[in-house]
Amino acid sequence: MRVLLPINLDRCKFPVSTSLRELTLRNPKIDFYSFSSPTSDEDRALGEFLWNQPHIHKIKVADLIWQRFDIVHHASATPRNLIAAAMAKARSFGKCTHIFTAPIQPHDDDEFYRQYVTSVRRADVLGAVSYAVAKDIQEQFGRKVDAVIPSGVDLNFFDPAAAQPVDLEKLGIRHPYVLFVGVLTPRKRPDVFMQIASLMPELDFVMVGASYTPQEESMYRETASKYPNVKLLGGQPRSEVRNFMGNALALIFPSELEGLPLTILEASAMGIPVLAQPKSSMPEAVIEDVTGWLLPVDDPSVWVEKLKEVAKWAKTERTVFSQKARNFVTEHYSWDMIARQYAELYQKLVN
């Protein structure tokens, strides 16, 4: 079976690349073909490992002119994805099945909204990473999703035992601290995080994440500077994100819209409680008293009270919660399970 993944598979920090990469690594009996465009030393090190796998093949766009594929599968909607899918279909004389996995709920302020709509309409098989995404697609476009298959979590990497101590003194951070991980953009609601921080001067609130634009970064840095207990660290390597999670009191994730919030699942795999608002796909990832709590975003005092409650937990209480949270992710979002679901879907389509 030959599967084309029209994406740069060796990009570490791109969630869609990560998802498709994990899928390839766990299905060695399927031949996967993808592109390469590393942008960092971390990407290059990853590529060195990735392209040495006998079933994972690095190709160029020009190769699509003569290569044939059984399946073309993309999970981001860009002009390049659509061109690659069209070329694969044409070169295979229509026998190549086009799969699009919708990674987020459709919203018209997305710069690739038109491509998203086209992908939904053109795909032979339509997938979604959450029931929230599937519901919105059906409501907006009248098309039922064929399969809801979530993204997974690397449980070997996001393991409390793998977390290393963080030199908090060097960073000027007090312990315990509360964590925010995500792109600094209005949809993620970093303003809510800083508002909660302003009500809890006794704790430090650590923000990990870059911005889409210099203007947004400048805006959030200026806002953060108004609060002595807010520490904005910018983008960090994946291993550092894990280490910050492993040493945090809790993760605050006040985002408005998520296809499937992997940051929440990774934090739960690390055993820390998550506070989020009950919107979008967050209820699929945040289970009351198991992985965290869903709280009204318009009442920050509720978030403060819950954080104070968590801060008072005894060691035994925290250990029990941590195990429950990790067990939930293990049972529902392990990459082995997700990769197997995709392998079964591929096999069904080829047969």
How big a fraction of the residues is strand?
15-25%
Determine Rg (CA atoms, Å).
Answer: 21 Å
Low-confidence stretches: none
CATH T-level topology of the largest domain: Rossmann fold
**Distance N to C terminus:** 10 Å
Spatial strand arrangement across the major sheet: 3-2-1-4-5-6-7
What number of structural domains do the residues give? 2
- Major β-sheet annotation: 7 strands, parallel
* Number of distinct beta strands: 13
Regarding CATH, which class of the largest domain? Alpha Beta
Mean pLDDT: 94
Order of helices and strands: EHEHEEHEHEHEHEHEHEHEHEHEHHH
CATH superfamily of the largest domain: Glycogen Phosphorylase B
CATH architecture descriptor of the largest domain: 3-Layer(aba) Sandwich
User: What best-fitting shape do the alpha-carbon axes yield?
Assistant: globular
Q: How many helices in DSSP terms?
A: 14
Please identify the structural class as seen in this structure. Answer: alpha/beta
DSSP helix fraction: 40-55%
